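Structure ticket #2291
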Amino acid sequence: MNRRILVSLITLIVLAVLATARVGVTLADGPTDKQPDPSRAFQSVAPDGAVQDPVSLKGPQLQTVKGFQPSGISQHRPDEESGLEFARRTVKGMLKPDYVFGTDDRVRISPATSYPWSAIAHLVITRADGQTGTCTGFFIGPHTVATAGHCVYNGGWARSIIVIPGRDANSAPFGSQTVGTSALRTVNGWLQFGTPLYDYGAIILPDNTLGNRVGWFGFANYDDNTIMNLIGNLSGYPSDKAFGTQWWDAKGMIGVDADQVYYLIDMIPGHSGSPVWRTINNERYAFAINTYQNPQYNFGKRINQTVFNLMLTWRQ
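Resolution: structure written out below.
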């Protein structure tokens, strides 16, 4: 056989084999198999891959769940019920730290041993890449801490999180608990899409020791009109202040939609995961989880019916 013909035949055979292999790979690992599934976006997901639907509520939909103040812990608030002086302000051109609008009127909570400050926790996080970061979380049950999704999953599940409720600089009056990756929860949509719509999560503590000592927040699914007429309180552990100190601010709302609540409450990175709450008849009800900021406004994930149901799921 002519040498040139033989080489051509061998080349054709090799190309045919490679093409078959590529087809096999496409069928097994093609992009269709890896498309996100929006129908599962609001399911709770754990690091081991376990997926859980939100609790199914029977009868009328619940709108509020009460918090808990332990006996022996006093209540203290700088001016929670009325909030600070609020006006819609133009912030363009102001000299300010990022995401603090006008005068920095945040108030340090020291000590943070009274309720509700005791139920707000400093989170010291070892991220998936081994770097250390901080966030804020708040108790919503005896062993459940709500926070932002990016505090538990940021390019990968956090390796560990130290939960320190009521921290005041070097003082940890209630002690702390450290959890590993298996204790973390978020929703499938945060892993799939990574957008603010799904940026919420939780930490499941190993027992009720901390929650029963520090108390926990109620939470509520309010309608738009109710939210727009609220004074929102926000307290947590910002990164621009002394490490481990808790700071509070309160102002009115400037906007709301189906998934987010918008405000000019001062906050700084580190406040991610802080509760945004109202006070009524000495009860505290979170209605948003603080998540993001920009030069025009700060905003948090609204506790709508979907989030409300998931928070109930994580409390169980």
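Closing remark: The two ends are 77 Å apart (CA to CA).
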